[in-house]
Amino acid sequence: MSDNRNVKIRVRNLSKVFGNQPKKALELRDQGLKRPEILDKTGQTLGLSNIDFDVYEGELLVIMGLSGSGKSTLIRCLNRLIDPTEGEIVIDGQNIPSLKEKELLECRRRHFSMVFQNFALFPHRTVQQNAEFGLEIRGIDAGERRETARNALKQVGLDGWEDAFPRQLSGGMQQRVGLARALANDASVLLMDEAFSALDPLIRGDMQQELLQLQHRMKKTTVFITHDLDEALSIGDRIVLLKDGEVVQIGTPEEILTAPADDYVRRFIEGVDKSRILSAESAMRKVRSTVRDTDGPRTALRKMRDHSLDSIYILDRDRRLVGLIDADGASQALEDGKQTVTEVMTQDFRKVTREEPLHNLFAMFSENRFPIAVVDDDQVLQGVVVKGAVLDELAQAGDH
Amino acid sequence: MAIEFPRMPLGDWIENGLNWLTSEYSAVTRGISRITQTGIDGLNDALMWLPDWSLLVIIAGLCWWLANVRLAIGAAAGLALIWNLGLWDPMIETLTLVVIATLVAVIIALPVGIAAALSERLYRTIMPVLDFMQTMPAFVYLIPAIPFFGIGSVSAIFATVIFSMPPAIRFTTLGIRQVPTELVEAADAYGATRGQKLFKVQLPLSLPTVMAGINQTIMLALSMVVIAAMIGADGLGSEVWRAIQRLRPGDGFEAGIAVVILAMLLDRLTQSLRKRGKA
User: Which CATH superfamily hosts domain B25-278?
Assistant: First the structure.
């Protein structure tokens, strides 16, 4: 589904060896040895090995893994806070590992803003001065950067705190300053290194929601690192799962939950509250049969009988959903001599989009007995969800 | 039968080296000597030109402004005692030597300390040198100072600078190295050049530590300029020296107490500067 989107950053064959004989370590890796064996034989740590992935323009990509998985190394390779040993990182046609020092500075200034786990605010600077930092480095004049930083602070809800020092702020507020510093800079990619991990759970949830809103509004390409699967699933458009410096799986949260690539991922996703993450799409079934708005009640009855349905959705010429008719209604219409199904159809059904969380569907089933219609933005019918399918999906997910 | 090892002529080598330096660079040493002497005389004259009571008021006021009333009162009382003992002029001479030696030491130490913090290689070269400078008995520096700069205050400054510089270098290096990695990363991540990183992040954050180093340097400088009386430096040290030669413990202690008062004053003042830097 994402294949036709613009690639913002292309990462290919990226590896990082910590130690003084990287070549030797990579040779062993190519012979099929794994991280612990390479460490035993050469004393070199294989931090990342053959990482391939793309970051699409405007998406929020989560890189998730436990400690030691190489996620922090990976994000630092993107802006070369750590020099990769081999591989390509291409952003807008520039290959970052081969940039000279000057070009690298320029590239960092234009392309990357970064938010850090422990905020990394400058304690000797006020909130305002912190937010201005990136602009100051780029040599933007004082008036403009004050304005820009003020706007960024407003966006994260910190207006009025410009003259405070970071130590006077709570953790959540400090990280808002970190976020404002990144937003003010208006680089094309936002790197977030465990940005919310140091916050307590309530604040973290708030910050996640705010990030999602910001991201929705600004469509800023974001790479977000976390060790927390719940966080990854709830904010990521796509997730790159890392283990021991290798990519285990790349996919949308749903793909990861419904089609885990291996046992490692499967074990990982045990414990996740599935219904919170799964959406209508995962429980959606193909529609067995529909009728046109010009069809008569007789056609509707026949189709219901043929497909053993007790209700059927009515579509217009463009397959847009216009209503629903059930078996009782159709029989009545036939008796009354009605010409088309639209004369007796009902609107008393529920329709949702593919993204609707599964747990919301439960409530709908308790109010309404008809299958739930899944439509796209143009009201075109995509499929239906029946009550049994929801339970099935959840049960299945719970089995793993 | 014992094998006899020839004695290594380490001292001869050093003397030859020093002699060579003195003769080859006499123009340089004479130049340094003249500039330093002018500086010493200038500052000395300026401080002496001020009426005693006004200097006392100025220093007490400085204490009040930088620290608190208590220090101001203490400073005024201490300085008044020195004046009363008739040690005002030697005290001014000592203060001048300390100020000039500290200035020179800090001017050299800051760039060296910064460079050592940023370059691992320089760090590893410079640390043993600093150990050497600090542990070599202070008196030893006085000896080569004389052929370089002759008897007097300039030699005292030379020896004092060498002896008191190491803490300023060490603390500068330490201060920059202990800036949290994340903050340095943040500066890097936003594309800061080395210079921007240094002046906007590393130096401001290491300022309290650097100030602690300068405080140490001042204390060491004070102890050294007193010792430097042995090679003809003026000041409180020469009062002590004279008391030793005449075996008059009373005079010795009076001058010693004046040194203690000056030391405490300088220490508290620079510490309060440091605290202001932190806040």
Answer: MetI-like (1.10.3720.10)
